[in-house]
TrEMBL record:
Family named by the database record: Belongs to the transpeptidase family. FtsI subfamily.
Pfam families from the UniProt entry: PBP_dimer, Transpeptidase
Gene it is expressed from: ftsI
Record's protein name: Peptidoglycan D,D-transpeptidase FtsI
GO terms, molecular function: penicillin binding; peptidoglycan glycosyltransferase activity; serine-type D-Ala-D-Ala carboxypeptidase activity
Organism, as annotated: Pseudoxanthomonas suwonensis
Length: 605
């Protein structure tokens, strides 16, 4: 018998080696597959995975830039951008920590339900503003709570040092620092600049952990130098405010132009608003009445009518007109003067502000000629100052005139204009008949246009000087040491197809009249206290503003004789009073100014 079979050791050893080889081959193939996959990911399809990674962690964020500074003509800042902080949050991160929301709401100063609703509405977003354009210290206090998903970023906010005094000229910007009104809107593209952009890596909490590269450098906005003089601007604001208070008027405007260049040196409106806190401000207070609101110019049109008659060769300065008996029937209407002035020459018509005289001047003028002449001074067309929303006024063509239109236009009814248009026309009279479009930018001089012969403009200017002298309707506009040329205008306000017992008082003047530097228009609407005549309401505002403006701008006097005479009278009175004083005289020099003189019958007729 044979014994049991023995196991084959060589066969067992061979199987073990085979298995090890199989495992080794499998591992080798896996390694090759991994290396191949890695090569594919890193080399072949790298862009795709790079984009996927960047989508999760790389962000392109804006680099804020400051808005250009606005300065007055002397380089004083009137609109500047100051750095502020805006607090923002990641709604996805915040909603994962609802227990921290009450604390965040208290820090932000908002109701919890409002914050929760806002975050819930943006639950699929990664960005939401929580509080914008706040003081950096306030933002720091909010971030100090360390609420997950809350961050801050730098922005800029506009600040207006002059406040209400320059609000209507400058306008304001919105929360995104875009111009909304005034010159901020007109020059928005120039001032705004271009924000930059950079790529950063954020962690899962939204924090920036690395700046990758600069995509686009920020370009700050360009600065803008205005023609406005902030000193004259404030003078006009102060005096207009005082006048509105004293006369209980509803609104008013003041415009000051440089006669030679057309530059706007001051433009003020009341009521005004605070451009640093626009929210809640009534829309009615935000418009620039000096360029948007229309008024019937009233008797301020009479110098233009005189110029038209002189230019047509129908009259001379010595031509006389009989205005007896102080009234004139015109159709079913009666035109009146304030008094019966009898026979007047052309200068007398301007001095006494005779409505009848103005009608007689315009009567022989052809309709088309009179229309074209008035339009040549800028009435009926926008001044082209570049200010947003400037009105063109109303000047009907002759085809739409009735039998009364030319006559009423001669003394300032039946057409309308803005205070800026009136100032532009008077600046033309002071600039030897040359009309220059107004500008708000220092150094920008627009091409002049000859509206009337220089000698005629100079003649009319001399006539207007009598308005502020004894016997004229605006003695309150006289300025010691200077000749003043001007004209009052007291017009009833249109209402319901007729005219109400409410008035717009206007004074337009040039100073010094021998070589005009300033053309100034003062318009005050609906005075309710005391007189409503322009000579007593608007003319004193002109005088107060111009007295200081002439001094500030170093304009030499052109009426030295009157100034010396007043000085001598004041010195004589001072010397006469010396023996009566027990102590040293307190020299105030108050009596060197002309005392107020009320015109009999008051102001403009």
């Amino acid at each position: 018998m044979t014994g049991p079979a023995r196991p084959n050791r060589n066969r067992s050893a061979f199987n073990l080696r085979g298995r090890m080889l199989l495992v080794g081959v499998a591992l080798g193939l896996c390694s090759v597959a991994l290396v191949g996959r890695a090569a594919y990911v890193q080399l072949v399809n790298a862009d795709f995975y790079q984009r996927q990674g960047e989508a999760r962690f790389v962000r392109e964020i804006p680099i804020p830039t400051s808005r250009g500074m606005i300065t007055d003509r002397n380089g004083e800042p009137v609109a500047v951008s100051t750095p502020v902080e805006s607090v923002w949050g990641n709604p996805q991160e915040l909603l994962r920590h609802p227990d921290r929301l009450p604390e965040l709401a208290r820090a932000l100063g908002v109701p919890l339900d409002q914050l929760t609703t806002r975050l819930s509405q943006r639950a699929d977003k990664e960005f939401v503003y929580l509080k914008r354009r706040i003081n950096p210290d306030q933002a720091k206090a909010i971030l100090a709570h360390n609420v997950p998903g809350v961050f801050s970023q730098r922005e800029f906010r506009r600040f207006y040092p002059q406040g209400e005094a320059m609000a209507h000229v400058l306008g304001f910007t919105n929360i995104d620092d875009r111009g909304q009104e005034g010159l901020e809107l007109a020059f928005d593209e120039w001032l705004r600049g271009k924000p930059g952009s950079k790529r950063v890596i954020r962690d899962r909490h939204g924090r920036i952990v690395e700046n990758i590269d600069l995509v686009r450098a920020a370009e700050p906005g360009k600065d803008l130098t205005l023609s406005i003089d902030r000193r004259i601007q404030f003078l006009a604001y102060r005096e207009l405010r005082n006048a509105l208070t004293a006369h209980k008027a509803s609104s008013g405007s003041v415009v000051v132009l440089d006669v030679a260049t057309g530059e706007v040196l001051a433009m003020v409106n009341l009521p005004s608003y605070n451009p640093n806190a626009v929210t809640g401000t009534a829309q009615d207070t935000q418009r620039n009445r000096a360029v948007t609101d229309l008024v019937e110019p009233g008797s301020t049109m009479k110098p233009i009518t005189v110029a038209a008659a002189l230019n047509a060769g129908k009259i001379t300065a010595a031509t006389r007109f009989d205005t007896n008996p102080g009234t004139m029937a015109l159709g079913r209407y009666t035109i009146r003067d304030h008094h019966n002035y009898g026979v007047l020459d052309v200068t007398g018509i301007v001095t006494k502000s005779s409505n009848l005289g103005a009608v007689k001047l315009a009567e022989p003028l052809p309709n088309q000629y009179f229309y074209d002449f008035i339009r040549g001074f800028g009435y009926g067309s926008a001044p082209q100052s570049g200010f947003p929303g400037e009105a063109a006024g109303v000047l009907m063509p002759p085809a739409r005139w009735n039998g009364l239109t030319k006559s009423t236009m001669a003394y300032g009814y039946g057409l309308s204009a803005t205070p800026l248009q009136i100032a532009q026309a008077y600046a033309a009279l002071g600039n030897h008949g040359r009309v220059i479009a107004p500008t708000f930018v220092k150094g920008q001089i627009n091409e002049p246009r000859q509206a009337v012969a220089p000698e005629i403009a100079d003649q009319v200017l001399a006539m207007m000087q009598t308005v502020t002298e004894p016997g004229g309707t605006a003695k309150q506009a006289a300025i010691l040491g200077y000749h003043v040329a001007g004209k009052t205008g007291t017009a009833r306000q249109a209402s319901g197809g007729g005219y109400a017992r409410r008035y717009t008082t206007t004074f337009a003047g040039l100073v010094p009249s021998t070589h005009p530097r300033f053309a100034t228009v003062v318009v005050i609407n609906d005075p309710q206290a005391g007189s409503y005549f322009a000579g007593l309401v608007s003319a004193p505002v002109f005088r107060s503003v111009m007295e200081d403006a002439l001094r500030l701008m170093d304009v030499p006097p052109d009426d030295i004789e009157t100034w010396l005479a007043a000085q001598a009278r004041g010195e004589a009175r001072r010397q006469a009073a010396l023996p009566k004083l027990p102590v040293a005289l307190d020299e105030t020099y108050d009596d060197l100014t002309i005392p107020p003189a009320m015109a009999e019958g008051g102001g403009d007729r």
